[in-house]
Amino acid sequence: MASAPAPAGSNQGGLPYALAAYGIWGFVPLFFKLLTSVPPAEVLAQRIVWSLPLCFLIMAFRRQIGDYLAALKEWKTLRLLLASSVLIAVNWLVYIYAIFTDHVLAASLGYYLNPLVNVMLGMVFLGERLSRLQLVAVAIAGVGVAILLAGALDTLWISLTLALSFGTYGLLRKVVPVGSLPGLAVETTVLLPLAIAAAGYYLWIDDGAGFASGTSISLLLMAGGVVTAVPLLLFATAARRMSYAALGFVQYLAPSIAFVLSLFVFKEPLKPAQLACFLLIWISIAVFSFDMWRKMRAGRMMPAA
After folding, report:
1. Within a 13 Å sphere around the CA of 282, how many CA atoms are in the beta-carbon half?
2. Does residue 7 belong to any structural domain of this protein?
3. How many structural domains is the chain composed of?
4. What phi, psi does 63 have (nearest 5°)?
């Protein structure tokens, strides 16, 4: 039986999983830049098709096939996983589109916003209380988003879609009563019919750019299953072992890596409105981080007192 989600403020060994997941996600644009000749929808379809066999292989090794079948039979669990599968598919597709269209900066901003979305979702749905400093941090981030409305509206939808879709996905995966790997396998199973249909369509039109167009592209698309399943499995495990606010704090790693890649590897231009927004987000993160540090320090000193 799957363990219950960690209560707010707990940390049952989830930090290593979170660091590994966000580290992989930070560098994943380098992988998808190798596939820019392939339509984004086909990349997404192939990610889903090839991640499911890996999930089954790991589940068989960990003897979790029974948990997977039980989740499929339990309507309440399946309903939540249906919703989370839609959210993660939207997130994947928008993220691939952002990389393919040279908007890694916008994607980075979305994942900078995501921890603050996590904090607000944790407050609304999980009863996690925000301190005054955390509320200030959220307000500062809101001002940054407002600046983007005035100066970078063309990419704001990318940032907000990524932040909201993944934040809500993480919330659902935290509360759904199923283990991280069986849950991911159910999500992938739900998406599989559409993924097979899309993959079959692109094979049928034979545009010479996607799967079966060449050995290197085909192998990269197959490797997308590993790139998809491994960090999501790590994330889902972390989400069930950490408080939602703490999980959001660790996520700063991924957008920081993507931000550096976008400027120094992909050479994307940084608009004034984007720069102003990033500065405000970083100030917001600093305020939030200080508050988290202060609370952790107080927690360590309490037993001694």
Report:
1. 10
2. no
3. 1
4. 55, 50
Closest CA to 112 of 11, 240, 228, 26: 26
Please report the DSSP string for 48-77 in residue order.
HHHHHHHHHHHHHHHT-HHHHHHHHH-HHH
The answer to whether position 2 is within a domain reads: no
Residues near 113 by beta carbon (within 8 Å), at least 6 away in sequence: 141, 145, 159, 160, 163, 281
The answer to whether position 74 is within a domain reads yes
In whole angstroms, how large is the CA radius of gyration of the chain?
Answer: 20
Domain that holds residue 122: 15-300
Identify the segments of the chain with pLDDT beneath 70: 1-12, 208, 212, 244-245, 248, 296, 299-305
Could you tell me which residues are beta bridge partners of residue 136?
Answer: none
pLDDT at 304: 54
pLDDT value of residue 124: 84
Q: Is 6 contained in some domain? A: no
Residue 242 forms beta bridges with which residues? 11
Find where tokens 């199923």 sit: 178
pTM over 0.70: yes
Please enumerate, as own/partner, the contacts of 257-261 that have beta carbons within 8 Å and a separation of 24 or more.
257/23, 257/26, 257/27, 258/26, 258/29, 258/104, 258/107, 258/108, 258/111, 259/105, 259/108, 259/112, 261/26, 261/27, 261/29, 261/30, 261/104
pLDDT of residue 245: 65
pLDDT at position 3 is 40
